[in-house]
Each structure stands twice: as C-alpha cells, then as structure tokens.
Specification:
With 343 residues, this protein is of the alpha/beta class. Helix content is 46%, strand content 17%. The chain has two domains: 140 residues, D-Maltodextrin-Binding Protein, domain 2 (3-Layer(aba) Sandwich); 158 residues, D-Maltodextrin-Binding Protein, domain 2 (3-Layer(aba) Sandwich), CATH 3.40.190.10. Strands 1, 2, 3, 4, 5, 6, 7, 8, 9 and 10 form a ten-stranded mixed β-sheet that branches. Helix 2 runs antiparallel to helix 10 and helix 5 crosses helix 6.
Length: 343
C-alpha cells in the first residue's frame, strides 16, 4: 500500500513539474488571447501600413472581438518578396507590386483563393510613375525622352527583383505608344523601342527595389530616378533632399494586389485575416492610403483630399497592354530583356 502511494505521489509531482515548466515557456500570441498577422509587402507599402492601417485595424478588431492583433512585416522588392514566400517564409498576407507575382504564388500552390474575386480584382491602391530630378532641374528633364539625352545619369531599380522596375519599363514604352497613337492613329513600336534603348544606356545603377533606388538617389547619386509618385512626395515631405517631381505627358498607373497566402493560414486565424483583407477596401484604409500618397481604388472623391497629386494628361494602366499575361512576355521579356538589356 505504501509503495502504491509513493508511485502515485511521484507521478503527481512529475505532472505538476511539467505543468509549471510549460507555464514558463514562451507562448504564441493566440495562446495568450492575441493573434499576430504576418505580412510581406513590396517596398513602398511600409509607411501606410505600419503608421496607419495596422493600428486602425487592430483597434477595430479589438473593439468588435475583444482580441489583440499584432503584425509582423517584411518589405522588399515585389519579385524578392514573392521568391521568399515560394521558398517558405511564414507570410500569411502579401501585398505585391504586380499581379504577375500573385500568379506565381498561385502556380506554386501558396495562393488557392482567386484574388480577382475580391473587391476591385484584388487591387488595393495605385500610383502613377514619374521622374524625380534634383532641385533646379539642371538637366532640363520634362518628359521621358529627355532621359535619353547624353550626360543624364539615371537610377532605375532592377527588373529581376523589383516590380516597380517592370512598371517603369511599361511606363516608358507605353508612353511613346500612346503619344504616337494620338498623333498618327497608330502605335509606333520602333519609336517606343528606340526611347527605351536610349534611356537604358543612361542607367548607371540598378538597386534591388524602388525604396533602395530612392535611398541611393537621396545620397546624391544620379541625376534622375524613375519611380512611383508617392516616393517623390514622401521625399518632399522629409525635406532632406531637394527634389522636383516631373510628371510625364503619358504614364502608367501601377496597380497593387493583395493576396492571402492560403497555404500558411491556419483555421484559427482565417477569420481575422479575412477581416483584415476586407478592411483594406474600407473608407478608413483607403483614406490612409491617400494620406500616404497612394490613389484610392474605391472612391475618386478620396483622391481629391490629397492636394499634392498632379493630374496626368494621358494616363494608362496595364489593360493598355492586354494585362500582365501579355505585358510580361511581350514587353518585359520580348522587348526589354531581348532587345534592350541584352544589346
């Protein structure tokens, strides 16, 4: 009887010790009653998300569900972000520069829901492509063709790693197609190719992302940078580097999709992640995007709240090329890679 008691006592003590040890181990946020969403985004999304949209959604979810929400973020060039997810990083949401990257995630089995069935075909914001020049514009740059002049040194992100770089190529090439079409009724592809070749000859540096390109420009390198308009507006706000924003006569509006990385989302977190995705198209989130110099995709009236936006005389978007399914193989690969970069 005594031996049986001792064994029971030892078993009870062991169980209590294990329970005590478990209570001292780090716990996941969900186990503490909170939850963390992991988001990977292309480089220029950082400010609007971290300074405005994350806090706003966390407050909304807390008020409605009594649960704390935190966020873990990583930002890089869109192609880089996509490659990281395909290699296994624990992203649950991705906001990408180009729809083609979302397609790559879908083909890799990481995205199983069709983002095109979400509001606005998954696009959460947009912005036109512009040229940034040094204060005073000593090189006399007023449109894309001026970037091909001798003596102009250009910073341009790397198309291999940056979605912004691919938008820039489409902006340059498409601008000449659109202007020639308006002038003569037909697209002058030879003229568009010649401009792209001339500009690329003047590219002196190809950083990995639009944000890296901006940082390099801020250090004083280069005469001009082709980038998202909001990068120029953020630079002007910072007042560290005298800069002028040149809006080309014809330029593209980049459109940025958000997708759920279904492969990495557990059933326990699905509801909060779905709610966060829907929140991106709310008035509150769209106003935040406008505050940080993205254009709203849900309400043009919101865009009037940003007095810094400059109208584009001849705007176009990816549909001008027939969508990414045609733009990438025909322009990025067939024109830029094969007839510009390799020459």
């Amino acid at each position: 009887m005594k031996q049986t008691f001792n064994k029971a006592a030892l078993l009870t003590s062991a169980l209590l010790a294990l329970a005590l040890l478990a209570s001292c181990l780090p716990q996941q946020p969900a186990e503490r009653g909170g939850v963390t969403i992991t988001l990977y985004g292309f480089s220029i999304m950082k400010e609007s998300l971290e300074k405005s949209i994350y806090p706003a959604f966390a407050a909304k979810w807390k008020a409605e569900h009594g649960q704390e929400v935190g966020f873990t973020s990583s930002f890089a060039g869109s192609e880089t972000v996509t490659n990281q997810i395909l290699q296994g990083v624990p992203a649950e949401v991705a906001i990408l520069s180009i729809d083609r990257d979302a397609q790559r995630l879908q083909h890799g089995g990481f995205v199983t829901t069709d983002w095109h069935n979400t509001p606005y075909k998954g696009i959460v914001n947009k912005t036109p492509f512009v040229i940034l020049v040094r204060g005073g514009n000593a090189k006399g740059i007023h449109d894309f063709p001026d970037l091909a002049k001798p003596g102009v040194e250009i910073i341009h992100p790397d198309p291999v790693s940056s979605g912004g770089a691919q938008w820039s190529i489409l902006a340059i090439y498409g601008s000449e197609l659109m202007k020639s079409e308006k002038q003569s009724g037909g697209q002058d592809t030879a003229r568009a190719l010649q401009l792209l070749q001339g500009i690329w000859r003047n590219v002196k540096s190809t950083p990995g992302s639009a944000r890296e390109a901006r940082t390099q420009f801020e250090t004083g390198f280069g005469d001009a940078l082709i980038t998202y308009e909001l990068e120029g507006l953020l630079m002007k706000e910072a007042k560290k580097t005298p800069v002028e924003i040149i809006t080309p006569k014809a330029t593209i509006f980049s459109e940025h999709p958000a997708v759920i990385i279904d492969k990495n989302v557990t059933p326990a977190k699905r509801a909060v992640i779905d709610a966060f995705m829907q929140f991106l198209w709310s008035d509150e989130a769209q106003e935040a995007f406008v505050k940080y110099h993205f254009y709203s995709v849900t309400n043009d009236a919101l865009n009037k709240q940003n007095a810094e936006f400059v109208p584009v005389e001849m705007p176009f978007d990816i549909s001008y090329f027939g969508g990414w399914d045609k733009a990438y193989p025909q322009v990025i690969e067939g024109i830029f890679r094969d007839r510009v970069q390799r020459k």
